[in-house]
Amino acid sequence: MPAVDSQNPNIFVYPRSTVERAERSLVCSPFNLCLFEVMGHQSVSLTVIALENGLKQGYTKRPLSELACDNALGWLIQVGVLRREVDGQGITDSFRLTPLGRQLLEQYQGKNWHTPSWRDRLSDAVTRWLRIPF
């Protein structure tokens, strides 16, 4: 499996299973597409996403506690969609898209998330709960 497409060094080639898992995790997450569109341009702080703030901004489907929000964002980090922002002091409470996240966001340009099937939700829940290595 090539790590980088030689024609454009900014495009990474991922295995299909990785892309499918990441996409499934995105659509099953409690977040709306607009959050990831913003993350494509700037980092977004946990405090902006959690509680009523996230619902008001249209970032979440329902109000999330900071712990639930951090756990959901942490899962998206594990599947390779997000990364934590780092500053001179170390890791912050802000998040940005990874190259994989940007590729997935491009696929949904001008579209909405597809509704996850019960199979998608079950697969995502089992993988997340068991933390099956990939």
Explain what the structure shows.
The radius of gyration is 15 Å and the shape is globular. With 134 residues, the protein is mainly α. The longest helix is centred in the N-terminal third of the chain and has 13 residues, at 16-28. The chain has a domain at 18-108: Winged helix-like DNA-binding domain superfamily/Winged helix DNA-binding domain (Arc Repressor Mutant, subunit A), CATH 1.10.10. It has helices at 16-28, 33-39, 46-49, 51-57, 66-78, 99-107, 118-130; strands at 44-45, 82-87, 90-97.
CATH superfamily of the domain at 18-108: Winged helix-like DNA-binding domain superfamily/Winged helix DNA-binding domain
Shape: globular
Level-1 CATH class name of the domain at 18-108: Mainly Alpha
CATH fold label of the domain at 18-108: Arc Repressor Mutant, subunit A
The quaternary organization reads as single chain
CATH architecture term of the domain at 18-108? Orthogonal Bundle
Which strand order spans the largest sheet, edge to edge or round the barrel?
1-3-2
* SSE-based structural type: mainly alpha
* Helical fraction: 40-55%
Give start-end ranges of low-pLDDT stretches. none
- Tally of separate helices: 7
The overall strand count is 3
Describe the main β-sheet briefly: 3 strands, antiparallel
**What is Rg?**
15 Å
